[in-house]
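Researcher: Structure prediction, please.
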Amino acid sequence: MSRSTRVLVVAVIVSFCAFLDGAITNVALPAISEEMGGGLVLQQWVVDAYLLTLGSLILIAGSLSDSFGRLRIIRIGLYGFGVTSLLCAVAPTGEILVVARALQGAAGALLVPSSLALIVSTFSGAEQGRAIGRWTAWTTSAFLVGPLLGGLLVDAVSWRLIFAINILPIVAVLVLMRPLGRDEPLLDRPRVDWLGAVLGVVGLGGTVFALIEQGRFGWGSPVILVPFVAGVVALVLFIWWEGRVTAPMLPLALFRACNFAVGNLSTWFVYAGFALGPFAITIFVQEIGGYTAFQAGLATLPPTIMLVLLGSWFGGLSGRFGPRLFMAVGPLVAAVGFLLTLAVDADAFYWTQFFPGVLLLGLGMAITVAPLTSAILGAVDPSHAGIGSAVNNAIARIAGLVAVALSGVIVGSALDVVGYHRAAIATAIMLAIGGVISALGITNRPEPVRVEALVADAAEGPATGPTSLPPTPAADPPDAPRP
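Model: Predicted structure follows.
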């Protein structure tokens, strides 16, 4: 196995583990509650504890990746993920399970940005686009495969197995990493912005907690108001601090690169739609259509298949022709897919009411995801790939959290036929906005911009705008050798 192939396999497995654990848990919640008690409150926290730490710590994880090396941070994350997975599997009480899930999310945060940054530093040109396409296809599919795999494990053995089974891929990837050696020593290691990290964790954690839990406590409750206000204040202080500190955790100058700023704005709307739509379908087909949990998982399997089969191909095309067309068309195709599901009624007949729309959703995801990731990271110098990846992942995860948290406002009191129609329309609008943003703002083939260069340019005078960034040379002809 070549080094580049080994890097890609390692990156896929470690990210897949982190994403899968966020998706596989939902189908096990009734079994967990039945054994441990706690009802809905415990079920919510088993999910929320993981997502809160994962989303709020991704930024500092990206900074650590750039400072201490991708391979080192991945290994630390794998050991932590393995230990916390075992702790989840043997947890004797609900409280211990929730704490273990929070720690598991923190370990998972170390895996995602480091794995993608490892790809960016290993591949270049069209090969990088194809590699990101493969990474994206397999890791994103975790959100769709999770309910299927979780249902099988829970029904066949126990809910505890969904956590214990993580040990198998962790051991495998640690063995695969051995020939990769260790990171080269950094002579000029960037300083870690610990204060920025704390402000970021408090800010994201507080606001996301409030958005998720407001339906249970109400906005007037101190349980919601205190963390929400603290979170907003912390986020404001975070932005202020990042603009003043010498070595920021989040270099704000990154957002002066056109594709980075526009791509992350598009990410917010696209991933909000990708989270809300499948969430509504999964709940609707079970509560109104009478599907079993396993059947509901099967109903959302076509997008997984299309993403795996076509994601790499569209990533390669994006590497050759630029990402703008794909980032504009893909979300619009997915939006049309959700509009087609407006034909659904209480019978929820899959093949005529859902399958055509779900098929278009899969095609739209395959067209969009790899070019979107490639465009954002291609706008950042490889030395800042870790934090660039972390910012994009954090935005994607938090957009999904916000969309699902607001689903009650969108669908009304129940996810009936009318409620599902509202969710489908809202999803289509989110996706369409993301596509329009990409069409208007993404630039094909900009030079990767170093943060230091942007800072120096800002110090000399006003920015001339994102269109002043010099374009890269045209793509190599098809018969030219690739790196």
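Model: Confidence is low (pLDDT under 50) at residues 454-483.
Researcher: Thanks, that helps.
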